[in-house]
Write a structure and sequence with these properties.
185 residues; 4-stranded mixed beta sheet
Amino acid sequence: MRKVILGLVCVAIALSSFQCQNPDLEGDLRFRQGILDLREITFKENTSIELQGEWELYFGEFHYPPFHGQKELTGYLAIPNSWQNEEYGGIELPRTGKVTLRAFIHTNKQTVGQELRIYIPDIASSYRFFANGVLIGGQGKPGINQFDDTPRIKSKYYTLIPDDEVIELVFHIANYENNFGGILS
């Protein structure tokens, strides 16, 4: 099975250098309001796509996939970034707390069943990661408060094999320790 790499990379790499590494990729491949459209991409073994852009942000809550019922969207958070000092609805978010980040990747039929490698960089300060409702992994133990949280910051690769053309990615992130919470660069 061909390996395909999807990288959630937290360093700001110029799109021009990104495209030089991936000459078959055209356009600005970023999440737009929680959706990344990769249906026109033919993945190769060395294909690397940065999973950055606007992710759905639900501050103060851990929502488990699949989302049932109405969930109040706080807003969209540009990844990589911290939620600290972001303002939504006239309220500035603090550095500590818990969030759910969610986004969808739309792929083509050829991608279904392929092995995807996902790189998760440092996330402050603990997280759980789900793909299509399945817990893929995490670091530390994201808690509902500082007493329930076990921080651990470490980059990691995960493997997933999508069973559908739409991949729902969900992160539960908690930060009660670091100077800011979110995806670090």
